[in-house]
Amino acid sequence: MHLPPxxxxxxxxxxxxxxxxxxxxxxxxxxRRRSGSIHLPLAPQxxxxxxxxxxxxRAGACPGSPARVGAYAGSGExxxxxxxxxxxxxxxxxxxxxxxxxxxxAVNGEMAGARDLFDMMPEKDVVSWTCMISGYAQxxxxxxxxxxxxSMQSESSVRPNEVxxxxxxxxxxxxxxxxxxxxxxxxxxxxxxxxxxxxxxGAALIDMYAKCARTDMAVKIxxxxxxxxxxxxxxxxxxxxxxxxxxxxxxxxEQMKRSGEKPNDITFVGxxxxxxxxxxxxxxxxxxxxxxxxxxxxxxxxxxxxxxDMLGRAGLLEEAEELIRSMPVSPDVMIWGALLGACRMHKxxxxxxxxxxxxxxxNAQQAGCHVLISDVNAAAxxxxxxxxARQVLHKxxxxxxxxxxxxxx
Length: 409
Fold this sequence. Notes:
By secondary structure, this protein is mainly alpha-helical. Helices cover about 65% and strands about 0% of the residues. It has helices at about 20-25, 50, 65-75, 80-85, 95-105, 110-120, 125-140, 140-155, 160-175, 180-190, 200-210, 215-225, 230-240, 245-260, 265-280, 280-295, 300-315, 315-325, 335-345, 350-360, 365-380, 385-405. The longest helix is centred in the last third of the chain and has 25 residues, at about 385-405. It is globular. The chain starts with 19 loop residues before the first helix and ends with a helix.
């Protein structure tokens, strides 16, 4: 399938946002939250940190060079780096120094501090814009990612690169903003960006189309790649799985193995998800058992979770419970919750009683678990236990609300 005709010179500022959620987020963006700086472990004694701290006091007590600022920002010492940056003469702050500080804030999730510096920059290059756009995407601020990309197109002559576009496509994926994703695709084609290099732009396109329920386009992009790495295979396998294209997902997985590309942990999450959605219990068991023996991938909690979901959907609750007990790591509340959901589906209140006690023993704070416990007990006619679960749920909501309020102060 081909993309519809695009304008000769598309402008993102002229593009109407198709997603109501995206439009709402852009018109009413969430408040930015300032939090304390995240301090990463210091370098070993004699390393970068030890060499840079002057003998007479704090490193920030004397003006720093771009290299010193970069060293502290890169190690997570944002307070020291910012103090040194602020004390530098204006002539000493070149675009590289500004970018170093912005990147330091962004990689530590301090997007408010990054944006403050970004807005003050006298000159911005592609690294400046990409640090901010990627930082917003990694922080989950997807609407702000696209908003800033729009500003990049309308307010500067700087051309985005492959790294920029990967973050833009990630935002489109999470917001299921298909029209914006199609515009990004047209921009990539217009500027002849390479899809199958180390930046994984092709995988990002596949993921975007799959998340927007256009698996036909995801498959088309996949087959257009000259070189298909594990990220491209995983994007297609996972995309087909979440869209319910079970047989196609299994077929692509078999093609991947024949191609010589080695599956990894993400590959198996996609395949097991497809087996769960399609009720392919035997195929799921075989896939799970072959992870370590054939592909050298040790099952993790997420793979056990997929198996519990698959067995639970099929009504094999005792087998799912036994699998949980055999886990090499302690099962978390999400895995027990998946089994409890299956107990409600199949009205197996005997198993539900055991599972419920496990969840309560973990002192779970997730509201969804207590809703599920309440619903299971109500279905079993245990109104007292159902009311008790609702009371615990109410306490969780109040505690979460108080935590959110205090973090905004």
